Amino acid sequence: MDLTWNLDALYTSFNSEKFKGDMELLNKHIENLNDWSAKNMKDTNNATSKIQEFLNLYNEYKSVYCCLYSYAELTSCSDNSNMEAMNVLDDIEYKNSLVIDSFVKFNKWLISLNNIDELIDTSPTLIEYRFYLKELILQSKYLLNENEELLIAKMQSTGSKAWQRLYMELTSTILVDIDIEGESKKVALSELRNMAYKKDEFLRKTAYYAEEEVCKRISKASAACLNGISGEALTIYDMRGYKSPLEKVLMVSRMDYETLNVMLSAIKESLPIFHEYYHKKAEGLGHKVCLPFYDIFAPMGDANTKISYSDARDLIVSSFRIFSQELADFAKKVFDSRWIDAEPRTGKGNYGLTVDIFPIEESRIIANFTGEYCDVGVLAHEIGHAYHSYCLRNEKMLNTDYPTPIAETASIFCETIVNNALLNILPTNEGFSILEKSISDAGYYIVDFYARYIFENKLFERRKLGQLSVEELNELMLNCMEEAYGDSIDTETIHPYMWMNKVGYYLSGNEFLNFPYSFGVLFSKGLYAEYIKNGEAFVSQYNNFLSATSKNNIVDSAKIIDIDVHSIEFWRNALNLIQKDIEVFVSGV
């Protein structure tokens, strides 16, 4: 099977007539949107018609923009040295800034209407956009005037987004010499990090300290990137009236403080459970006291079987079929239509990513398939993202946005389906490895991300006082890691540059990409428990839940499947499922 994707449904190249035509069409949509806004936002006469016209124009613009941006982003992510793709991304982002003025005018005009609910109720079209419009009104109080928002958008292209691109280039192109089986090789940072999952302890340790060395080489530049991005975020969010970047993230995540605080309280309670796992893992790997950090992702058990890409496809499709035929058919389409770029190569980031392209009702997935069974779970995870967007295929472009915590729920739910199927079909030794990997992943998303959440909170507090040096960032990161991992990890082995190996810190406008993943793990555990309890009856309920996530906040979305996210018992019960896995692991070591 071909491990590279096919992007032809979008464009064949930046020089294709279709791409050039859509760039011209984008300019036309920008012109139409701006001309219309200048003429129609002067008064509130015929308000219902004006709202409908704006939404139609904005939908048309966003649809073309989505296709163009997705193609450039996908091309860039699959080859970070592709300067043409980066330049096109710059151009598209600049063009997007040209509609900021119209968007802000519409938002300001919208909140001037004192009868918005009555207007919505009189129009079937506006009823469809009720949630979207109410969200705009809620967020409008944090908008500056048109000129200020336009200035911010333009300056970000040479500010935080430029810092983001520099970080991406630094971490994806730097090479390091490492001895592998007696042969010196030059490998990328992503390849070093992949070695953390290898069976060879010497290789894991060698790669880990090589990563520390290469991080040290680019630490000053990375610190500049982090200071630039976080400093800009603080400035902009303060100007807009947010209490903190966290308040902004919770708002766009459609998540309230109560949900976050209850979940974090349950996580903090559960840390000793994970500490027990890490201590037992240390014992199983032959360490006397606690686990060296270079062994935190070390595979356990006797599993050494490789799996082909085609067999991985068949395994995912058959596992999904246990849940529903629709999910299985969708996964088969993903593979058969070559939506996945699974080939590992230099210049390609070491992460999984799904880009949803709603105008063509397709997605594209980036992964690195090396033939390990853990790669099967990664593929299932990303297909889960794509399935979520598939469930929203009948929505207009403006009604397809859903919050990150819920997005991670859909992906981890699919990953759980596959992992549980693997436990049932693999031999005991292979099954033990899958179980341990599942616990390891849960520990990463819960314990490690708890540390990173604490770090980001403290980073923003400290950044208010000025820029942080490499040494200060190192100390802050180590303190947060120690708080989360306790005495289960040999803290002397935690290299101090962990703030450099989490891409979320460097994604402009995407702060706190940590607790949403913890939410996703635990919420998906709760969902899976409901599936086990209710069987086939849960399938349609689950699809209805995914379809509703773009038009509801998290509290209301959860109610569709009878879950109260304000209840600490829900989070404790989800963590108890992980605890049961840990108990099985401990008894088997």
TrEMBL record:
<feature type="domain" description="Oligopeptidase F N-terminal">
    <location>
        <begin position="114"/>
        <end position="173"/>
    </location>
</feature>
<protein>
    <submittedName>
        <fullName>M3 family oligoendopeptidase</fullName>
        <ecNumber>3.4.-.-</ecNumber>
    </submittedName>
</protein>
<dbReference type="InterPro" id="IPR001333">
    <property type="entry name" value="Peptidase_M32_Taq"/>
</dbReference>
<dbReference type="GO" id="GO:0016787">
    <property type="term" value="F:hydrolase activity"/>
</dbReference>
<keyword id="KW-0479">Metal-binding</keyword>
<dbReference type="InterPro" id="IPR034006">
    <property type="entry name" value="M3B_PepF_2"/>
</dbReference>
<dbReference type="Pfam" id="PF08439">
    <property type="entry name" value="Peptidase_M3_N"/>
</dbReference>
<keyword id="KW-0645">Protease</keyword>
<keyword id="KW-0378">Hydrolase</keyword>
<dbReference type="InterPro" id="IPR013647">
    <property type="entry name" value="OligopepF_N_dom"/>
</dbReference>
<keyword id="KW-0862">Zinc</keyword>
<dbReference type="InterPro" id="IPR001567">
    <property type="entry name" value="Pept_M3A_M3B_dom"/>
</dbReference>
<comment type="similarity">
    <text>Belongs to the peptidase M3 family.</text>
</comment>
<feature type="domain" description="Peptidase M3A/M3B catalytic">
    <location>
        <begin position="195"/>
        <end position="557"/>
    </location>
</feature>
<dbReference type="Pfam" id="PF01432">
    <property type="entry name" value="Peptidase_M3"/>
</dbReference>
<keyword id="KW-0482">Metalloprotease</keyword>
